[in-house]
């Protein structure tokens, strides 16, 4: 078992939190943690919808301990990167292309200064945006890791009907209004924790950060975000350019994920020329890197082995 890390509820002394100005002047909150010695390379880690990088400090510390320089930023409209809705608890965006434009611009500036080989790692919505940006030629990492990637939304009526319903309901009135009241999905009897992780202590880490910095907390998505999520994932799943992706990809999939579609992720993986897929069973919920030790240790072991194999143990 990997040892618990002290940075779950504290910003590392060597890390910097600042802001990056996008092309339109929008300020996105960023996290930088340079390697203590000559770096093996540079990792850009991007979290999911409603997330903040503080949730992943334990995992970022694991990679930093191995000699990687780490960077992350909060997506526009969430965390410390402002809001795109009048309601500060609603996660809103008018078009997913805004995320991609930010990502491409940030990547270009970051890559110019990054040491060694570059790694793009994305969880959930972050995984979707990493793969979309690669497929569209916006970023070109040496390798990519997609963790429970949002390549299809989990919908009880299926993606096609779900998107139709979202457009029909959410297309009327204010698209920035919340799509549902709370939790991660509507009309569920399961707790939010049950949807995310089986590890109570790691779930409480997120609650700690929400309490310590309440302005970072986000609630449900807007109707427009939901419509855009259905559309963006559908278009990526059918993008012919997936077959031309030359970036080696490691994809971690939770087969019983109740937030994103594991089946959609596996279909996309089957179209990528250079991909390794690692699947997790009932022991794993959506947040693979914040799961119980047995799951998380396996996931980190797979990532470490993939980076060593593709970039060299001392890259």
Please render the helix and strand layout as text:
Elements: E1 16-21, E2 27-33, E3 41-46, H1 57-65, E4 68-73, H2 97-113, E5 118-123, H3 125-135, E6 143-147, H4 159-170, H5 192-196, H6 200-212, H7 223-237, E7 249-254, H8 262-269, E8 275-280, H9 293-311
Domain Serine aminopeptidase S33: 39-293
Organism: Sphingomonas panacis
Pfam family, one: Hydrolase_4
Question: What can you see in these coordinates?
Answer:
Residues 39-293 form the Serine aminopeptidase S33 domain. This is Lysophospholipase. Pfam families: Hydrolase_4 (PF12146). This protein is 35% helix and 15% strand. It has 315 residues and is an alpha/beta fold. It has a single domain, classed as Rossmann fold (3-Layer(aba) Sandwich). It has an eight-stranded mixed beta sheet, with helices on both faces. Helix 2 packs across helix 3. The radius of gyration is 18 Å and the shape is globular.
Identify the CATH class.
Answer: Alpha Beta
Question: What is the count of structural domains?
Answer: 1
- Net shape: globular
CATH superfamily: Alpha/Beta hydrolase fold, catalytic domain
Short synopsis of the structure:
By secondary structure, this protein is of the alpha/beta class. It is built from 9 helices and 8 strands.
């Amino acid at each position: 078992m990997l040892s618990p890390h002290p940075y779950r509820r504290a910003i590392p002394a060597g890390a910097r939190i600042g802001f990056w100005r996008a092309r339109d002047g929008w300020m996105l909150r960023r996290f930088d943690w340079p390697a203590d010695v000559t770096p093996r390379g540079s990792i850009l880690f991007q979290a999911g919808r409603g997330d903040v990088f503080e949730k992943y400090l334990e995992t970022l510390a694991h990679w930093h301990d191995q000699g990687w320089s780490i960077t992350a930023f909060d997506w526009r409209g969430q965390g410390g990167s402002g809001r795109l809705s009048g309601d500060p608890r609603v996660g809103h965006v008018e078009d997913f292309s805004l995320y991609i434009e930010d990502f491409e611009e940030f990547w270009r500036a970051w890559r110019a200064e990054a040491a060694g080989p570059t790694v793009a790692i994305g969880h959930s919505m972050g995984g979707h945006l990493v793969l979309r940006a690669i497929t569209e030629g916006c970023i070109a990492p040496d390798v990519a890791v997609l963790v429970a990637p949002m390549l299809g939304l989990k919908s009880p009526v299926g993606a096609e009907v779900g998107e139709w319903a979202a457009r029909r309901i959410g297309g009327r009135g204010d698209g920035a209004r919340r799509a549902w009241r709370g939790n991660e999905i509507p009309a569920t009897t399961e707790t939010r924790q049950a949807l995310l992780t089986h590890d109570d202590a790691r779930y409480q880490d997120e609650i700690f950060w929400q309490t310590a910095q309440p302005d970072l907390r986000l609630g449900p998505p807007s109707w427009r975000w939901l419509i855009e999520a259905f559309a963006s994932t559908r278009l990526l799943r059918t993008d012919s350019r997936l077959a031309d992706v030359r970036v080696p990809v490691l994809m971690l999939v939770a087969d019983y994920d109740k937030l994103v579609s594991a089946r959609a992720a596996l279909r996309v993986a089957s179209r990528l020329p250079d991909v390794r897929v690692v699947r997790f069973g009932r022991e794993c919920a959506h947040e693979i890197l914040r799961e119980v030790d047995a799951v998380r240790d396996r996931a980190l072991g797979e990532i470490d082995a993939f980076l060593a194999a593709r970039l060299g143990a001392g890259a």
